[in-house]
Amino acid sequence: MESAHESAAEALRLYEARDAARGATADATSMRRHAVARLAAPLPKAKEIDQFVRHMEARGYSVACRLHQGFAEKLNKDVKHVRPKERVRQTHEVTVARLKIKCAFRVKHMKTASDALQIKEATPHTAAAAAAAHNKHNSTSTTAPDNHQPTVHRGLVGVYADESAICTVGLSGMGLNYRGYAIEELAEHCEFEEVAYLLLYGRLPTRRERDEYVARLAPMRALPPALCTILEQLPATAHPMDVQRTACSAIGTMETEPEDPKARTPEGGARVAERLMSVLGSAVLYWYHFKTSGVRAVPSVDPNETMASAFVRMLKAPTNGASFTPDPLHVRTVDASMTLYAEHDLAASTFAARVTISSLSDMHSAITTAIGTLRGPLHGGANEAVMHMLKPYRSPDAAESAIREMLAKKQLVMGFGHRIYKGGDPRNKVFKGISRMLSMEREGSGGDPTLYAVSERVEKLMETEKNMFPNADFYAASSYYQCGIPIELFTPIFVVGRTSGWAAHCLEQRSANRLIRPSAVYTGPPPRTFVPINERTEENAKL
């Protein structure tokens, strides 16, 4: 069997001869020589592969880089940051006008270069038709007028921007996992503090570590006097998310990270995260009580009290918290929801936080960025919208009639569908069970069997009529509402939980940082001649 070098040289001679006969450009010949040279290398490293792919794509070529499992296993030993096994089979292919290149890297059983490097000629008509069909069936991707321009993936749909060891979302057979643990098990058996510890430090705590962690977080719920002054100045009409965003930014001016990025440590970043996820709940509740009743609420700093219990205590008893006993089921609801909302891969807010931290900015700025992104209605706030939708219906029949009318008018029914979970959100099962439990066990004291029945009827109707399933926000709405939590405070609880996930991603970004700076395909006017303002007219200004 010929060696990789021999087969590469043979393939190169064949391709160059064909290029000469067809009058191929020097650039095409150079690219093929570069490709074959890479194939001849005994074992390309992950960094080399990435450089090669970028080199090819920058010149208008389509590159599919398939890593065989043996290669992936080798990289697992040799390379610190490797591609997850589930991405080994991933192939990225884009049709271009003149040439399609597929580059497959073999490790143990490299075949001949002609097998490893498949170069197929495509006529302009065929390539253009393929590109048009691709764009027609994928409205999120568009190709620039110049067929040699790269494909644009609007909203970065289907784009893998980085690798992460924190969370899996929607992968076949894996559902939603935090660092390998199924979300259902974490929500059922763990307190939020355990989950936050897992996300920030990579493993679940022992009993002793859990107790020490709860005690360490408790004093972090305290509000600095300067922050209280700021919160009291915010208008009563402000959105609670804006209050949390402002509080996060304000704390960043009082409790700063080192200005020198080299002086920042993972432990220091984790402490900032712990302070923020502890204090942001206190901040929004302080503002809420002050604006609604003039009361200056005091957060609990009991070293034995969990974050969820302290939140319920401060919400329900802002002035006499010491003598108030939170309802265990309400505490369970808030605690589980913080876990369920804690992390979700590169959601818009998480990606925004990583973009900020990639510029070597501080943790407070990154979390402030994330809160601002979550503020948008296409990301956060859906659980509030669900409750506003369900609240008027006093019977399942009334709800079904109204929802059918919405569907007939092609109106959006909140709380259904997900870009990733096409067969149902795994978090929904947990939230639905909590909502059902509240409706049965707390009837007459906040529990609302009618609300649960309405929710269930809407769920069945949407599945039957639209084949759509609830996302996490749908039953979260009725769960929160039955606990007596004001609707405008639904999403702020989301913020408290997700801060742990945002921070975990920020720390991961710092560990192998590279500035996140994507490119855009320019579609503006061609180069124009500048006209001084004194010579500018309406006619020549448009040229």
From TrEMBL:
Q: Which GO terms describe its molecular function?
A: 2-methylcitrate synthase activity; citrate synthase activity
Tell me the domain of life: Eukaryota
Has keyword Ligase? Answer: no
Q: Where is the composition biased (Polar residues)?
A: 138-150
- Annotated TM spans: none
Q: Name one GO cellular component term.
A: mitochondrial matrix
Alphabetically sorted, this entry's keywords are: Transferase, Tricarboxylic acid cycle
Q: Which GO terms describe its biological process?
A: carbohydrate metabolic process; propionate metabolic process, methylcitrate cycle; tricarboxylic acid cycle
| Family from the record | Belongs to the citrate synthase family.
Query: What protein name applies here?
Result: Citrate synthase
Which species is this record about? Pycnococcus provasolii
